[in-house]
Design goal:
- This protein starts with a helix and ends in a 21-residue tail after the last helix.
- With 138 residues, the protein is an all-alpha fold.
Amino acid sequence: MSPARSALLLAGLMASAGVAHLAAPRQFDSIVPRSLPGSPRAWTTASGVAELTLAAGLALPATRRVSAQATALFLAGVFPANVKMAYDWRHRSTTAKAMAYARLPLQVPLVLWACHAGRQDTRRGVEGGNGRSGAARS
């Protein structure tokens, strides 16, 4: 899959996550590590806004490369919330635990996906990760 197409698909995922954080924040508030300053709702809202901003940046060729790098950092940065969720859900049903534990290794392919999405497309004449066409590279 081309990096440009990959970036658009990742933009869709990030936009969906952003909307979910803003539309149904309560479920996300509970996984915000308590060691963070401020309220969990503020972190949930900030996360949703960040995800929507990253999605927009991934969708635009001119900002795709830097947005992909920022998305990779963001995905790595939210990992502690996934760890907290797995810990908090350790006494829930087998299905709930499986979902929480599955999120942990899922961060690795998501980060790699973001890295791929920021690469320049190597096919000639196709917009790549930094907005330049393949023919314009030097």
